[in-house]
Amino acid sequence: MICLKVDLMFTRDRAFYFTTVFIPGIILVTSSFITFWLEWNAVPARVMIDQKLLPKFMSKMNNHPFDR
């Protein structure tokens, strides 16, 4: 009987995942909760969050090379 034993060690770059997944995700969730702290009639502030912050984070996520 032939037995083959293989030990695989998988590693990943933690800094890459923090900068591309965790930090933008935390910023996105925090910026979405800002709308709950605004007054209900503060429409310009809500529109600014929608038109300025969210597309910026989405384009930032798309520019990172996920396949290293």
Automatic annotation (TrEMBL):
Superkingdom of this protein's organism: Eukaryota
GO cellular component, one term: membrane
Protein's GO biological process: monoatomic ion transport
Alphabetical UniProt keywords: Membrane, Transmembrane, Transmembrane helix
Gene3D superfamilies on file: Neurotransmitter-gated ion-channel transmembrane domain
Chain ranges passing through the membrane: 15-38
Transmembrane helix is among the record's keywords: yes
UniProt keyword Transmembrane helix, yes or no: yes
InterPro entries: Neuro-gated_channel_TM_sf, Neuro_actylchol_rec
Name listed for the protein in its UniProt record: Uncharacterized protein
Originating organism: Culex quinquefasciatus
Lineage, broadest ranks: Eukaryota, Metazoa, Ecdysozoa, Arthropoda, Hexapoda
Gene: 6033526
